[in-house]
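Same chain as my last thread, 106 residues:
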Amino acid sequence: MEATKTKAKAQTQTDNSSKTTTDHEEIRRWVEDRGGKPALVKGTEGKDDEHAGLLRIKFQEDEKLEETDWETFFATFDEKNLQFLYQEETKEHKTSRFFKFISDKK
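reply #2:
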C-alpha cells in the first residue's frame, strides 16, 4: 500500500472547534508542530506481523508506547479506515494537543 494518500482521496471536515482529516501530510504537520511522534501501544500488535497495533501519538516519555515510523503508522491508519479528529487551538487560543482516532465507516 502506498504510504501517502493523494490530495484527491484525503478529506478534511471542520466545525468551530475541531477538524477531521485523512490527509497524511496534514496529520504529520499537526503532530510534528506539537513535538509528537507516531507510536503504537506495546503488546497490541498481531502475532503475524500483519497488524501493527493500536495507534497513538507520543508527546512525552511513556513506557507503554513504542515509537514507529510514519510509513507503518499511516499503513495501519489506512488499513483500519480511521480519521484523525483534532483541534488546532483551545478556547483560550493556545496550541491544543487534543486529538482522537475515529472510525471512518463507509
